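A reminder from the course coordinator: this example appears on the midterm review sheet, so study it carefully.

Given structure:
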């Protein structure tokens, strides 16, 4: 999926819910498929792939990397390693947002319940309808396909405007809230987009949209059957007149990278305001002091992109400038996590330090005050965590947290001098109990530390130096001694 050149479009992953409110499930044993799942976990997640020649044809890939297929008798299998003709389906969207899946080859419809699934129905009935529950992390950047501009909260106009060239700062973060098969769009200040373009505090009928897919892009249909579209010169996001989605009504979701500000030992913010040199010489945080942290998937090193689109890079004599337009070895930095501060090591093996004039240079062999930076995450005021087994949300009957749910709770992330406090919906704070449980009813804030270790993943360390991880039973614990798959979180 082409993007505006900043971030990659997210691959669409979702759960499919049948008429009995059960999820389509891919079992490892014999590659069998059933519709028995009660919630969306790994086995219930499907990835949509499009045929490159014909954008209307889709393939459904299971978590095992195998493709859903139907033979001429309507028998369903999910063992194909490569998509063959039997794996070709067409999506037939219904007015209520549900999908019917039709075999392209045999023109029959897929449906059923429990272990009795087939693709043999000649017409679409209730049993052939599937609700779509997106499985991707719900915080993203929203790109208008037609305008090639990003949505952002325009607080001066009290609306969402689609007129940003790049998704910059906390205003560009959109959170998708899923409820009863519908989606709402939530802004960074916790308001919901209504179909008339206004931002409101309550989630109601006018803020609920059904999600439709058209050639791999998303369209949002409101309660009156009209679609969200950018309107007017500032691209006010609201429902237009169309009752069929055209190019103007289509959007891409792109992953939202962490954006950070750095404060040096001189208490001033690192900035590109002075031109190409990177210096700690500003007293306020603006777009010029905000940097997008992009983590290389292979090396796990970090790149820092400016809002002009260039990268920090190491130049002669160890100076750090913002002159690189491409990612290369000199734009990669290692981050060392030192509690409330970080140290940055450049590709010459030296630490980045702040000189007397504020200029950043990679010339130090050891870490002292001048090599330490306060790093603050600015574009996640709302925290939603997804681990290997699902989302983090409040346990129904206690003060603990589950880490294996298909629904998520939204927590507030509050910066505190290099550490973070996490606030629950009830206004109380997270803390780690003496038995290692993460609890949600703290009266006073407790410090946690975020370590951005992998592309799209963060590790969270408690004040005792132990990592938060989901245990076997699905409870969020604060007793991890090392970072592994159970202690890395999509955020």
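Designed residues:
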């Amino acid at each position: 999926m082409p993007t505006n050149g900043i971030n990659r479009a997210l691959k669409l992953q979702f759960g499919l819910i049948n008429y009995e409110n059960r999820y389509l499930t891919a079992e490892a044993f014999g590659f069998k498929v059933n519709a028995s799942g009660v919630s969306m976990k790994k086995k219930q997640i499907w990835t949509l792939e499009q045929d490159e020649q014909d954008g209307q044809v889709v393939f459904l890939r299971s978590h095992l990397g195998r493709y859903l297929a139907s033979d001429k008798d309507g028998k369903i299998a999910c063992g194909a390693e490569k998509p063959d003709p039997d794996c070709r389906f067409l999506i037939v969207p219904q007015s209520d947002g549900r999908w019917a899946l039709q075999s392209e080859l045999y023109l029959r419809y897929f449906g059923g319940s429990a272990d009795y699934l087939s693709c043999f129905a000649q017409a679409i009935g209730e049993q052939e309808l599937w609700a779509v529950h997106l499985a991707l992390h719900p915080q993203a950047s929203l790109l208008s396909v037609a305008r090639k501009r990003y949505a952002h909260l325009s607080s001066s106009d009290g609306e969402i405007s689609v007129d940003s060239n790049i998704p910059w700062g906390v205003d560009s973060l959109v959170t998708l809230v899923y409820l009863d098969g519908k989606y709402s769009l939530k802004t960074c200040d916790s308001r919901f987009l209504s179909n008339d373009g206004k931002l409101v505090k309550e989630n109601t009928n006018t803020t609920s949209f059904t999600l439709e897919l058209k050639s791999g892009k998303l369209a949002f249909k409101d309660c009156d059957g009209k679609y969200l579209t950018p309107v007017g010169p500032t691209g006010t996001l609201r429902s237009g007149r169309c009752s069929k989605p055209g190019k103007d009504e289509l959007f891409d979701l792109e992953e939202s990278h962490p954006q950070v500000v750095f404060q040096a030992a001189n208490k001033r913010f690192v900035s590109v305001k002075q031109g190409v040199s990177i210096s700690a010489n500003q007293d306020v945080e603006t777009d010029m002091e905000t940097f997008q942290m992009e983590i290389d998937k292979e090396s796990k090193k970090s790149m820092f992109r400016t809002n002009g689109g260039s990268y920090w890079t190491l130049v002669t004599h160890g100076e750090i400038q913002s002159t690189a337009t491409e990612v290369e070895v000199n734009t990669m930095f290692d981050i060392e996590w030192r509690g409330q501060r970080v140290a940055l090591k450049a590709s010459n093996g030296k630490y980045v330090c702040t000189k007397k004039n504020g200029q950043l240079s990679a010339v130090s062999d050891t870490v002292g005050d001048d090599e330490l930076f306060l790093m603050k995450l600015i574009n996640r005021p709302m925290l939603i965590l997804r681990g290997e087994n699902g989302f983090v949300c409040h346990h129904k009957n206690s003060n603990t947290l589950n880490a294996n749910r298909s629904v998520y709770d939204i927590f507030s992330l509050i910066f505190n001098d290099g550490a973070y406090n996490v606030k629950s919906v009830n206004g109380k704070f997270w803390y780690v109990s003496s038995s290692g449980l993460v609890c949600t009813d703290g009266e006073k804030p407790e410090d946690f530390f975020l370590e951005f270790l992998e592309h799209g993943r963060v590790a969270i360390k408690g004040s005792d130096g132990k990592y938060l991880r989901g245990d076997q039973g699905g409870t969020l614990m604060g007793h991890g001694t090392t970072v592994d798959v159970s202690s890395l979180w999509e955020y």
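Residues 139-255 form a domain with the Trefoil (Acidic Fibroblast Growth Factor, subunit A) fold (CATH 2.80.10.50). The first strand starts at residue 13 and ends at 17.
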